[in-house]
Amino acid sequence: MRNRKTHLPLATFFLVLSFLSLEAIVPPKGSCWTDRIIAFSGNAQSASCNTTRRCVNETLLLERAKKECGQPIANHTLRESCGYKHYFSIDYTCCAPFKCKSFPVLCGLYGDAHLPEK
């Protein structure tokens, strides 16, 4: 019974956090935005969230960032080297118009109407 009591406050915390950070993750139209991609394997959707960081080639991270951005990225920093040209994550800057594909839950609630005007 004790475990059930901890799940509710934790779920509430993440729900509140997602709404509080809404303005922080949606850039004004016409401006660049930054994001991070972390390579992992496992299932983040399961109740146990059984995931492990993966060491991947920098090309894979750069291609994924370009795909997420929708055009070539403006700038990047590969993070946590784990071998020759292999890393755990990438921070990148995208100057394409922000799209809702990264945050489908928020976009499902608000659509593009929540994007600030320039």
From TrEMBL:
Keywords recorded for this protein, A-Z: Signal
Domain of life: Eukaryota
Signal keyword on record: yes
Leader sequence segment: 1-24
Protein name per its UniProtKB record: Exostosin domain-containing protein
